[in-house]
Amino acid sequence: MDSRISSIILVKSEFERSNKIDLDSSKADGGVSIEVDTILTDKLPGIIVTLDLNYTLKSNKTNDTIVRYYSKHVAQVEVKNYEALDPLKIKRFGGVNIAAMIFPFVREDLSSRVLKSGLRPIILPPFNFVKLYDEKNPPTKGPVRDKKKTT
């Protein structure tokens, strides 16, 4: 799909760090949740992709929250021959490919904020956007056919 990202914008961000923490990150576990939304728009023409990330780092000893992070990044994407393409394919392209292109910006933002707060940087591992998209948008099945043979 011939496309061009016009912009990636940080729309909202929240960061909170506890002042009572054990700096040994081996005694903490992080949890991450990601939401991706794709909106088709005739204005570009193209798509707008929103990626929301929530990250929480909790102490294994006390279960207290050490770090809480939230961000919303938005990408505007121009798609050539937009009108001629299948809208479901465009949505999938945004939910998988464009989300994967936004993710490094989100990962860097989280890592920088954690480092600036006096902790060791947290580097999020790669994320499977194909799996996330397929879980959120299961493929539609055609009509169910009876497997019995009629004579």
Structure, briefly:
This protein is an alpha+beta fold and 151 residues long. Helix content is 25%, strand content 38%. The chain is built from two helices and four strands; from the N terminus they run E-E-E-E-H-H.
Structure, explained:
Helix content is about 25%, strand content about 40%. By secondary structure, the protein is an alpha+beta fold. The protein has one domain (about 5-135): Bacterial Protein-export protein SecB, CATH 3.10.420. Strand 2 and strand 3 (about 45-60) form a beta hairpin. It is elongated and about 55 Å long.
How many structural domains?
1
Estimate the strand proportion: 35-45%
What are the low-pLDDT stretches, counting only 5+ consecutive residues below 50?
142-151
Question: What is the percent of helical residues?
Answer: 25-40%
Query: What is the C-alpha radius of gyration, as a whole number of Å?
Result: 20 Å
Biggest sheet: strands, sense, closure? 4 strands, antiparallel
Q: End-to-end distance, in Å?
A: 47 Å
What structural category arises from helix and sheet content? alpha+beta
> Can you count the helices?
2
Helix and strand succession? Answer: EEEEHH
What is the name of the CATH architecture? Roll
> In the CATH hierarchy, what is the superfamily?
SecB-like
Overall average residue pLDDT: 87
Morphology:
elongated
